[in-house]
Write a structure and sequence with these properties.
By secondary structure, this protein is an alpha+beta fold. It is built from 7 helices and 4 strands. The structure holds adenosine-5'-diphosphate and magnesium ion (MG).
Length: 140
Amino acid sequence: MAIERTFSIIKPDATARNLTGKIVAMLEAAGLRVVAQKRLYMTRAQAEGFYAVHKERPFFGELCTYMTSGPVVVQVLQGDNAIARNREIMGATDPAKAADGTIRKTYGEGIERNCVHGSDAPETAAEEIAYFFAQTEIVG
Ligand code: ADP
Ligand code: MG
């Protein structure tokens, strides 16, 4: 298995409920290592750029409002197959459809307020990491 890096966000619904530590514990238990992390408010422009792939979707405006509604914790996660492993421990987008034991099933409030983001492919992981982190901030 290849060591990979992926990009993760602990979203505003989760930081509001003080779940950062509990979510990090689930990521670590899944074999992922936090190699960069910071807490910040996303600007509207950052959120719109980050989710540009969804700009034609009906939920785009609401999604950007939600993502700027409170602090987020952006992270780089490293580990064997980190991209797929993180998607696995996150669970399905809709918490109601997510598998037992996943972050979204355990803590998600709904299809929008679903606690976490994770990159879906090597190309998006590289882009998303670079969107928020300088190489010097990532300590593997
Ligand atoms: P994922 O985060 O699982 O990769 P998507 O890339 O499809 O899911 O969507 C990005 C984010 O947009 C989701 O995590 C969720 O917060 C929000 N979202 C997705 N689908 C909907 C929807 N039907 N209604 C409201 N928000 C949604
Ligand atoms: Mg996605």
